[in-house]
Design a protein that fits this description.
There is one protein chain. This protein has 200 residues and is an alpha/beta fold. 24% of the residues lie in helices and 29% in strands. Helix 1 (14-27) crosses helix 5. The protein has one domain (3-191): Rossmann fold. Bound molecules: glutamine (GLN).
Length: 200
């Protein structure tokens, strides 16, 4: 049976996540039907969710205004998987360090927005990620870092000594943009291979 994957589409890179989800599903013999989430009422039908990058303040405001935020929280409380990337990580955190972001609290983490500074606004780096055999080509765009995590959070990758990929139960969150390469391993890890994935 096809899985229903929701991509939060209020702002940010949506079609790239949709493509990566379909490819990762195909690599695991699963058909994935992708729903763009712009209004309340769609998330409850989704088996898994991607929370894309973009601008965290705008995404946060729209999730609140549209009534989507509590549905995402309920999705995670039900143990269903989420992959949150870049601004998605900021919105998913417990502390974004910015009053304009109403954090969803999906991952027990404090984040620092735009942590790599202007000089290094955007860069690609080969990243060692726990659970992957070879380095992942990580694309960082005005990326946040994780400044602190709770006891139950696994750090999957660090850059410059700082966490840039974490897992908290069913939620995987990355500072970088795995959807912007043709490498689907992070989507696979989040949705089809992780210890807590519930898509089988
Ligand atoms: N700098 C953005 C923010 O703070 C995140 C950038 C991104 O998602 N690529 O929200």
């Amino acid at each position: 049976m096809a899985l229903t994957a929701g991509v939060v589409a209020v702002q940010g890179d949506v079609s790239e996540h949709a493509d990566a989800l379909r490819r990762a599903g195909a690599a695991h013999g699963r058909e994935v039907a992708v729903e763009a989430i712009r209004t309340a009422g769609v998330v409850p039908d989704c088996d898994l969710l991607a929370l894309p990058g973009g601008e965290s303040t705008a995404i946060s405001r729209l999730l609140g205004d549209e009534g989507i935020a509590p549905e995402i929280v309920a999705h995670v409380e039900a143990g269903k998987p989420v992959l949150a990337t870049c601004a998605g990580l900021i919105v998913a955190s417990t502390d974004a360090g910015d009053d304009r972001v109403d954090e969803l609290g999906l991952v027990d983490a404090t984040v620092e927005r735009n942590a790599f500074g202007r000089q290094a606004d955007s860069f690609e780096a080969p990243l060692d990620v726990a659970g992957l055999d070879d380095p992942f080509p990580a694309v960082f765009i005005r990326a946040p870092v994780v400044a602190a995590v709770g006891d139950d959070v696994d750090v999957l990758a660090r850059w410059d000594g700082r966490p840039v990929a974490i897992r908290d139960g069913p939620v995987v969150a990355t500072s970088f943009h795995p959807e912007l390469t043709d490498d689907d391993r992070l989507h696979s890890l989040a949705f089809f291979e992780g210890p807590d994935h519930s898509t089988d």
